[in-house]
């Protein structure tokens, strides 16, 4: 019997992604032609999801108008609000107001979400009076605020020192029966920390936990940053203690700020480092300053070094590119310190091409960059979505004797999974030394295949990990359960959920937890498969 030809199923997320790429990378004339050829039925959900991918603002507006002329489609409150939000974020307040006027003229339903978006962006553009008028208009038309509306309006008032009004709005919210969420409490604590009322702020920090509203990572980062700017260390210690108990971490810039504040106050930073075991001392780089110490002018190539250094110091980076190209053709070798500085400066100015040129020059001339140079380049490529180049960087970095480390390797593999690049992630994993192929990196790779929609490959990696005698951690089970449930493998997910519960019971009797497991739980024990 001949097998039936079965067309592959097309998921909505793939359709949305395809439309987003068309809008992002094509001219509007080309994009319009391609959109007309797509075999899809335009509805509010599809259009709204496309706009929420944040294509370039001009293309988003052209698409919004084009799809509005498609037969059998009409814009509703959801598509209008999303487009309105795009204009607000871009600072195009007049365009945002124009859209809002259109909604009113067409008789579309205007709810609390729309009003909240408008007052938020008006306050961002420093039109506080306009934000207040929007709130009053919403209340006047009988539109009931949500907890998000109340929180956004409170932030507007507190940020502009209208404390009595902000307090009155908070009391009104409580009287209406709406419970504060984490962001509401964060707005209150942010104001109190800014006003120097640390004890009152920490009292709220404690009471919100009693109300089973747990401060999240964003809240902790905001509060620690406020304390650092005020130079107060004792509130930082209490927040760090909470973060340690709940496996939360600071963003790297806030970590550096906290470290600097503690040192300036003569306080120990042991707790800060316990909360951030993944950040090693060698990774701490307080504002790298390019400083070249080479001064051996007896070497003929030292003139070239000196010239590159002068151009680099003056940030004439195009001239540095030209000079490097010429030196590469002549096979003239510079030194590791200078080349690493070139990579750092280019990455700091988002010049991916210049950083890659310096990397290729170092490969061709046999120069080993500093470890921080390779890491800066990897970070720059991730931010630029140039994932295929990352594999080459990591392979070269490993060959020169530098190590990513378990934390960075796991994070990089997971990030490639979020970008739907399982092949690149697998190559990174294969390039790791054996001692770094541990529960954290294996778990990251399992999550990669789940994110790509291939559950069988993910389970195959998990079984390979078990065969090597590596035991799963809590983070591993979180990845397995979340990934399998998302892909419809409910029975498999239930099996691993039971194993997870068993592991949680046994955890109370374990004297110590290996660092690899701590890193795995830190990265994956909460939310993993996107």
From TrEMBL:
InterPro entries: PPR_rpt, PROP1-like_PPR_dom, TPR-like_helical_dom_sf
Organism superkingdom: Eukaryota
PROP1-like PPR domain sequence ranges: 99-244
Segments forming a coiled coil: none
Keywords: Repeat
Keyword Iron: no
Intervals holding PPR repeats: 76-110, 111-145, 146-180, 181-215, 438-472
NCBIfam families (UniProt xref): PPR
PANTHER family reported in the protein's UniProt record: OS03G0856100 PROTEIN, PENTACOTRIPEPTIDE-REPEAT REGION OF PRORP DOMAIN-CONTAINING PROTEIN
Family assignment from sequence similarity: Belongs to the PPR family. P subfamily.
Name of this chain's protein: PROP1-like PPR domain-containing protein
